[in-house]
Write a structure and sequence with these properties.
about 300 residues, mainly beta, Porin, twelve-stranded antiparallel beta barrel
Length: about 300
């Protein structure tokens, strides 16, 4: 229990209740992820399992001409992460594997269609490193660290391993690779932390779209902002927002004129259960959607920490 640890180590362990729990936030590209570039003691391993329930119009292909779409996606996410040291700076590596059950209905060319499928969503691997303001520290050294400004960067890669049926309009996987470089800035002012990040997602082509057609998509650009407040005993809460635009698509070189523009907002609350376990509650909804996915999502994530002297 908490009382068995030295006060300085206890404070560091409490910090870990929110440090990596954003990894299993969900399974859509527009996830709101607070504390992506927080400093974390090196050598800590994280196991995560999450569940989310998503309602709305969500497709891997935003150009699909579906009308009155009512989709429900129940997702279970498994993840592993480890905090690292890279050239004296703190870094993280994580793998996220989501599995989902999709069910729903929509109108296609004026005709009603239904779809129900269970399988993997494309898994994601991400590596991030803090370039400034977050030195690599052990758990014992960490309590003396005081955050000011952190500047970090990351690269996330999704692999085409999710469920995909080329004869179907709606699938859980994309049947293509994606690459998402990102840069983020975090500034702490007492109990408040302000985070801002910008990213671009680049996609390879899907050569098995509706049979043997080639589906292409231009990059999607995204910004995120998070206002985080640190309560006592390791509890964190945040107000989250994101804006993303771009992603025009084409089929066999013919453009679909489907420039996307979205704004979303949400909230996050993390709660430590003990020195090794934490949970996170999150929810978000769309504020404005021009083209593509429009949905509400809520979920919970459990995190278990081990290693690094915890």
């Amino acid at each position: 229990m908490w009382a068995k640890h030295k006060p300085c180590v206890t404070r560091a362990v409490r910090f870990l209740s929110a440090s990596l729990i954003m990894l299993a936030h969900g399974a859509v590209a527009e996830d709101l992820e607070p504390r992506s570039y927080a400093n974390t003691p090196v050598g800590i391993n994280f196991l995560l399992m999450g569940y989310s329930d998503l309602h709305g119009n969500v497709t891997a292909n935003p150009s699909v001409p579906l009308e009155d779409a009512k989709l429900d996606i129940k997702t279970v996410v498994f993840a592993f992460a480890r905090s690292l040291e890279v050239a004296g700076r703190s870094a993280k590596f994580d793998v996220v594997v989501p599995e989902a059950r999709l069910s729903g209905s929509a109108l296609f060319a004026g005709q009603p269609r239904e779809r129900e499928v269970t399988g993997l969503i494309d898994p994601r691997v991400r590596f991030s490193v803090n370039l400034y303001g977050a030195p690599a520290l052990s758990l014992a050294e960490f309590p003396s660290y005081q955050q000011d400004v952190i500047i970090g960067t990351s690269l996330a890669v999704t692999a085409p391993l999710g469920q995909y049926d080329s004869s179907k309009l709606v699938n859980l996987g994309n049947n293509r690779w994606s690459f998402k470089p990102e840069i983020g800035v975090s500034k702490r002012l007492g109990p408040v932390t302000l985070e801002l990040s910008g990213a671009a997602t680049f996609y390879t082509d899907n050569h098995e779209y509706l049979g043997d057609h080639t589906f292409s998509q231009r990059p999607m650009y995204q910004t995120q902002v998070h206002l985080i407040y640190a309560f006592e005993n390791g509890v964190w809460g945040s107000l989250d927002g994101t804006y993303f635009a771009g992603g025009n698509t084409s089929v066999d070189g013919v453009g679909n004129h489907d420039f996307q523009e979205h704004t979303r907002y949400g909230c996050t609350l993390t709660l430590p259960l003990n020195r090794r376990n934490s949970i996170k509650l999150f929810a978000s909804e769309g504020a404005h959607t021009r083209t593509g996915s429009e949905y509400d999502v809520a979920g919970i994530v459990w995190q278990y920490r081990y290693g690094g002297g915890i």
